[in-house]
Amino acid sequence: MDSKEVGKSLGFYEGKIKRKMNKLTIYIARFNPSRKFSGPSAPCKSCMCKIKEIGIKKIVYCDRVGNIKKCLTKDYHTDYMTPGYSEYKKNNINVI
Ligand SMILES: [Zn+2]
Known about the structure:
Blueprint: H1 3-21, E1 25-27, H2 45-54, E2 58-62, E3 68-72, H3 83-90
Parallel strand pairs: 1-2
Antiparallel strand pairs: 2-3
The structure holds zinc ion (ZN).
């Protein structure tokens, strides 16, 4: 197998993985010791960036009042940045 063929087969597997990812749902929960239920766990801006990049189709998370929300990745929009990320940004630290 020469290098051209290796490149071709890698492309094939990448396509296959992408198709599989397209059927996946990510469940996001947040540990909250004071409650028996998950804390708010809606993904932040940088998590959404990664979720879209990987190609996960649906997201399930818990909102602020404790409802479980389910939606398509393409329908979810947020500008929320966690305090940790804002702090990194303030100090010019590039995390991702
Ligand atoms: Zn996040």
